[in-house]
Amino acid sequence: RIAGPSGLVIFGVTGDLSRKKLMPAIYDLANRGLLPPGFSLVGFARREWEDEDFAKEVHDAVKQHSRTPFREEVWQQLAKGMRFIQGSFDDDEAFEHLRKTIQDLDAAQGTGGNFAFYLSVPPSAFPIVVQQLKKHGLADPPNGSWRRAVIEKPFGHDLASAQELNRIVHEVFPRDEVFRIDHYLGKETVQNILALRFANTMFEPIWNRSYVDHVQITMAEDIGIGGRAGYYDGIGAARDVIQNHLLQLMALTAIEEPASFHPKALVAEKLKVLSAVKLPADLGGHTVRGQYTTGWQGGEEVPGYLDEDGINPESTTDTYAAIKLEINNRRWAGVPFYLRTGKRLGRRVTEIAVVFKRAPYLPFDAYATEELGQNALVIRVQPDEGVTVRFGSKVPGTSFEVRDVTMDFQYGESFTESSPEAYERLILDVLLGDANLFPRHQEVELSWQILDPIEKYWDSHGKPAQYPAGTWGPAEADEMLARDGRSWRRP
Ligand code: BG6
Question: What is the ipTM of this complex?
Answer without folding.
Answer: 0.98
